[in-house]
Structure formats: C-alpha cells, structure tokens
C-alpha cells in the first residue's frame, strides 16, 4: 500500500471505497462463475483464524497456507476482492514479479502477490447482516473455485464477534483463537499503534487503505474491542493491557466449552509437537518447516498497572489449560 504508484492508488480508491461497485462486482461474479459451474467442491471444514492482532494470527495463516491445502484471499485479489475470478482472468496475462518484501510492521514477516492476506472484512463491510448470512457461502465458493481447492482459510481479527454466525453457516468449520502473553501483546500493539499513526499522518492513502479493508486495530482510526474502563489513552501501555484483559475475559467466558473453537498459544508456535497437534485436529496432511519464525519477546517493560497485569495473567494461565 505504501509503495503503490499513482494509478494503482486511484484504482484502489475507486473500487474499495465504493460500496455500490463492490456489491455489484460480487453479483456479476456470482452470475458468471457459480450459476452454471460445478467445478468447485466445498469441503465445508473451513478454518477461521482470529484473536487480538500481534498474537501470531498472521504466522498461523502463513504456516497453514504454506501446506498447500487451502484457498485464501491473496494480494493478487486486490482491489477486486469480491470478484476474484473475474480479476484473475483480466490479469492473467500480466507478468508480476514475485519479490517478497517485509511488511510495514517490521516484524520479519514477508509477503508477495501470492501471499494470503486478511481481506475478508471487505465482504462484511459490503453486506448487511441479513445479506451476509445468505452470501458468505457464495463468497467462499468463489475463492475455492479460483484456487481449485476444497477448504477455505482466513485470518480476520474481527471474526471473534462472528464465530456463532459463521458456525451456523458452516457447522463443520474450525475456529482458531490465538493468544499471547498479555504484556508482550500489549507492548507490541502499542508499538504498532505509534508506528502506523506516524505512517498514516505522513501518507493519508495508507489511512484510507486500512479503513477500506476494515483494519482498525491500530493507527489514527483505531477502534477499541471493548469499552475502556480505567484507561482510555491509546499511547499508554495500560490501555492495551486493559483491552487484552477485557477481550480474552469475554472470549474465555463465551467459547471455553465450544468444541469447534481451538485455543492456540503464540509462545508454543516454535514447537514441532504443537504443530502436529494442530494439523491432526484440523485433519490435514502434516507439514513442518524448521525455523518458520522466531518468537519475539521484549524484557525490561516498566510503568504498567501491576494489578491489571496480575488479573490478565490469570486469564492467560486459564487459556493455557485449554
């Protein structure tokens, strides 16, 4: 997004900011590719990754996608996110250099045009609640058709609020809830908030781009996951720590007993045993790659609410038992 040229920025702005165009590009795509096509095969055991950002959700997404057993939205689908087959046909003759670059988070995660990306929120922003229940299955089938796969994979940090809704559409689906040590998550979120606030101030297109894709996790247009109780200033570590506590307290209460919700700890993602368990649980062919990522840990963190952290650690330790 930061490196888009002038015409690319205009195209993205024209398509992604226009709900009418998004809506009818999807309708046309459906008419052309689903009505008379039996090429797709929907396994219905799709996988939805969610959790607070900076908890390892992108790592899980990239790892599972690298096993070649899923279809997912990719950067190639931009900006026609809701008409992937039409856009793929239109750009099939365009040669794209698959050069991987590190994303703006500066966290070591690289991407290219073929990398999976969190684009699903564009769908939810386009359709009303009633429409989305009817159309979500078609949206996934279009992505399966384009990629000739049977199972869909997505990462959407906002799907924590839609688990019951999506599960009603796909009763066989799995929901991976990722969690990370509360203070480490909070510090990372604070750093990203400051970083992207600066980037968005210097480049207004980045701000608009993140809004089009529904990315309000941090930056100038950040939206809280829960109503703040004691801390309301985004530049305070305690604000993010309180958000962690409120978020996972609610999640634990609502989904602890749900068998289709699988809790995964970030701090264990460098364990071969953990990945074996994940692949077995999701009924996947086992895939393992050494040194896929290195766990990030920051020490010497000061000036935080010790009592709030203590309460958050209790939630964290309870999540570990799951």
List the helices and strands and how they pair.
Layout lengths: L5 H11 L2 H15 L13 E5 L5 H9 L18 H7 L10 E2 L7 E2 L9 H6 L2 H19 L5 E3 L7 H7 L4 E6 L2 H21 L1 H9 L24 H19 L5 E5 L6 H10 L24 H15 L2
Parallel strand pairs: 1-4, 1-5, 5-6
Antiparallel strand pairs: 2-3
Helix pairs in contact: 1-9, 2-6, 8-9, 8-10, 10-12
Word description of this protein:
This protein has about 325 residues and is α/β, with parallel strands linked by helices. It has helices at about 5-15, 20-35, 55-65, 85-90, 120-125, 130-145, 165-170, 180-200, 205-210, 235-255, 270-280, 305-320; strands at about 45-50, 100, 110, 155, 175-180, 260-265. It has a four-stranded parallel beta sheet, sandwiched between helices. A hairpin with a 7-residue loop joins strand 2 and strand 3. Helix 1 (about 5-15) packs parallel to helix 9 (about 205-210). The protein is globular and about 55 Å long. The model has no long low-confidence stretch (mean pLDDT about 90).
Contiguous helical run count: 12
Along the chain, the helix and strand elements come as HHEHHEEHHEHEHHHEHH
User: Which descriptor suits the 3D outline?
Assistant: globular
Cα(first) to Cα(last) distance is 38 Å
DSSP, total strands: 6
> What is the helical fraction, as a range of percent?
40-55%
Low-confidence stretches: none
Supply the helix-strand structural class.
Answer: alpha/beta
Sheet bearing the most strands, described?
4 strands, parallel
Overall radius of gyration:
20 Å
* Overall average pLDDT: 90
**Content of β-strand:** 5-15%
Lateral strand order in the biggest sheet: 4-1-5-6
């Amino acid at each position: 997004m930061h490196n888009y040229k002038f015409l690319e920025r205009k195209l993205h702005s024209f398509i992604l900011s226009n709900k009418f165009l998004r809506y009818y590009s999807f309708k046309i795509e459906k008419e052309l590719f689903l009505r008379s096509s039996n090429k797709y095969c929907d396994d219905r055991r799709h996988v939805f990754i969610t959790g607070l950002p900076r908890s390892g959700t992108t790592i899980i997404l990239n790892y599972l996608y690298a096993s070649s057993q899923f279809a997912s939205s990719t950067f190639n689908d931009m900006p026609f996110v809701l008409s992937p087959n039409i856009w793929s046909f239109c750009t099939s003759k365009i040669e794209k250099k698959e050069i991987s670059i590190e994303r703006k988070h500066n966290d070591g995660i690289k991407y290219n045009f073929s990398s999976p990306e969190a684009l699903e929120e564009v769908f939810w922003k386009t359709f009303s609640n009633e429409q989305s229940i009817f159309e979500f299955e078609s949206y996934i089938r279009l992505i399966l058709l384009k990629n000739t796969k049977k199972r869909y994979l997505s990462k959407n940090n906002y799907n924590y609020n839609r688990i019951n809704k999506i599960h009603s559409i796909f009763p066989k689906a799995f929901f991976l809830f990722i969690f990370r040590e509360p203070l480490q998550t909070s510090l990372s979120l604070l750093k990203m908030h400051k970083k992207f606030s600066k980037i968005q101030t210097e480049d207004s297109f980045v701000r608009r781009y993140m809004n089009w894709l529904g990315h309000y996790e941090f930056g100038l247009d950040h939206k809280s996951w829960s109503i703040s109780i004691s801390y309301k200033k985004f530049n305070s570590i305690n604000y993010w720590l309180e958000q962690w506590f409120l978020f996972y307290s609610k999640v634990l209460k609502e989904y602890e007993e749900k068998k289709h919700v699988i809790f995964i700890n970030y701090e264990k993602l460098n364990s071969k045993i953990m990945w074996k368990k994940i692949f077995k649980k999701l009924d996947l062919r086992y895939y393992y790659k050494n040194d896929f990522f290195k766990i990030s840990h920051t020490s010497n963190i000061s000036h935080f609410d010790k009592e709030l952290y203590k309460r958050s650690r209790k939630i964290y330790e309870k999540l570990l038992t799951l």
